[in-house]
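hiii so um. not sure if this is the right channel but i have a protein structure encoded as tokens and i wanna go backwards to a sequence. like what aa goes where. can anyone help
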């Protein structure tokens, strides 16, 4: 079975070629066979207007550099496009208006238009030349707008499943004429059972989902429970996640996700470890590396444990035994799990990114505050402080991978800022019903806010420095603005509603 790491270069940060090369050197010993670039329609070409993630496109020269990295290491380089949905950036352009299924926008194209179909074929033919693989991922996931716009009459006349299959099979046949095999997400085969017998058997289906069995996403979307039926009769791949988009790797979520795909992917041809960049693109690539190490090893070995993973990370980064590192890393792995948070809160989805970036007045954070155990939150703060203390006291230059160690040091402070902000949000929500608050009672909360802000200011500088080192400039302004909004909205945690007064007695 092939094991592939996917980078999202369509909607966020784009790794420098040297960043990719460094990661490949670290990951090849763990069984990596290739990489896949999630591109949507952002490659410079002569057919469509090239659309980067709001900033700049991927150039052929950049792809040539990445291919040099993979070719030199004997790795496969796979393209991942979108031929149906997730086309909102492309369709938003004025010159693409007539190809939108929904006139106001949306992210599905008009598959009833022969002109668009031929343009898509021409685009694929042009850009797949930059890749070494004989497979081409054509996306097809989350087609929420399908049949709701201009193509509705066409789909009603021909049948939704029949029209869908005709479009996809036609492009798959075109790719076969070029010596390529289509990969296509299993989403619609899950939702529309009739579609399963209509899709060409030469299409390789890819199933995915990045959560636990009982999380709200799976309960609503059935990617796991309907896997066998959706891919029956087809060759198939499976796609898990390395969890690099969270404030720190949430180990329970990561391990459960890999366990699910190990079970469902017994007969798969490939396991893709997806890296969706980071939450609002702010994380360093060290989490991509470490999350992928775990996914690669745990997918092959059901007995691969958290302690074994910690040992591998220790060897990779330090190349020596150090109990302080193991203890600190273990705390950071547990920070987003049930050691500190109630399961019903985690059921809603990944927790710590929201605690870092969402508005304290938002519904999600207010609901989360109601399910937060204050004693466990205090314990989490104490434990993360101890992890930060270890990383602050250690010398990065004594590590085998000093840059990775320094990134972990900065991330430990990001986790601390997050949990301090979580406490501020908790206090903010629970102060809502208060009537009188003396200035003395508020002083600890003010000090907490000041410490959180100091950490976030330092973290912002780390974000800026790390981005320059690891990523191309594209999208940085958007990521920075998102972080600045998180810092600004944190002030709301010191604002009590009109039903409360800060000073007693009131004037």
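sure thing!! here u go:
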């Amino acid at each position: 079975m092939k094991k592939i790491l996917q980078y999202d270069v369509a909607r966020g940060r784009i790794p420098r070629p040297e960043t990719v090369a460094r990661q490949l050197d670290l990951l090849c010993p763990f069984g990596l066979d290739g990489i896949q670039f999630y591109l949507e329609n952002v490659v410079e070409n002569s057919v469509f207007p090239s659309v980067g993630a709001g900033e700049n496109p991927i150039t052929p020269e950049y792809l040539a550099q990445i291919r040099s990295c993979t070719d030199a290491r004997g790795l496969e380089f796979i393209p991942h496009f979108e031929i149906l949905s997730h086309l909102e950036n492309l369709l938003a352009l004025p010159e693409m208006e007539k190809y939108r299924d929904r006139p106001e926008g949306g992210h599905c194209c008009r598959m009833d238009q022969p002109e668009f179909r031929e343009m898509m074929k021409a685009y694929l033919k042009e850009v797949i030349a930059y890749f070494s693989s004989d497979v081409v991922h054509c996306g097809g996931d989350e087609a929420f707008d399908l049949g709701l716009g201009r193509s509705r009459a066409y789909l009603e006349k021909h049948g939704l499943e029949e029209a869908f299959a005709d479009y996809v099979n036609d492009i798959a046949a075109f790719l076969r004429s070029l010596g390529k095999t289509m990969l296509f997400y299993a989403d619609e085969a899950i939702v529309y059972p009739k579609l399963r017998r209509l899709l060409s058997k030469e299409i390789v289906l890819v199933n995915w989902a990045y959560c636990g069995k009982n999380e709200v996403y799976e309960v609503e979307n059935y990617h796991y429970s309907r896997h066998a039926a959706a891919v029956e009769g087809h060759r198939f791949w499976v796609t898990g996640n390395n969890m690099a988009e969270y404030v720190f790797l949430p180990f329970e979520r990561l391990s459960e996700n890999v366990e699910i795909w190990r079970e469902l992917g017994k007969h798969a041809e490939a396991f893709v470890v997806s890296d969706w960049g980071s939450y609002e693109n702010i994380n360093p690539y060290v989490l991509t590396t470490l999350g992928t190490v775990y996914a690669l090893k745990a997918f092959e070995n059901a007995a691969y444990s958290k302690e074994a993973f910690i040992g591998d990370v220790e060897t990779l980064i330090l190349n020596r035994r150090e109990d302080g590192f193991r203890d600190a890393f273990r705390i950071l792995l547990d920070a987003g799990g049930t050691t500190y948070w109630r399961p019903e809160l985690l059921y809603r989805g990944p927790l710590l990114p929201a605690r870092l970036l969402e508005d304290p007045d938002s519904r999600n954070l207010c609901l989360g505050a109601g399910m937060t155990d204050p004693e466990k939150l205090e314990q989490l703060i104490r434990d993360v402080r101890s992890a930060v203390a270890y990383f602050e006291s250690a010398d990065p230059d004594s590590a085998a991978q000093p840059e990775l160690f320094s990134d972990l040091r900065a991330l430990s402070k990001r986790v601390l800022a997050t949990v301090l902000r979580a406490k501020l949000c908790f206090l903010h929500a629970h102060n809502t019903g208060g009537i009188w608050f003396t200035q003395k009672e508020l002083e600890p909360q003010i000090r907490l806010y000041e410490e959180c802000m100091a950490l976030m200011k330092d973290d912002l500088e780390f974000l800026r420095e790390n981005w320059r080192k690891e990523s191309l400039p594209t999208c940085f302004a958007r990521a920075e603005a998102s972080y600045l909004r998180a810092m600004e909205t944190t002030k709301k945690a010191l604002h009590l509603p009109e039903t409360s007064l800060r000073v007693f007695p009131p004037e």
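oh and The first strand starts at residue 2 and ends at 8.
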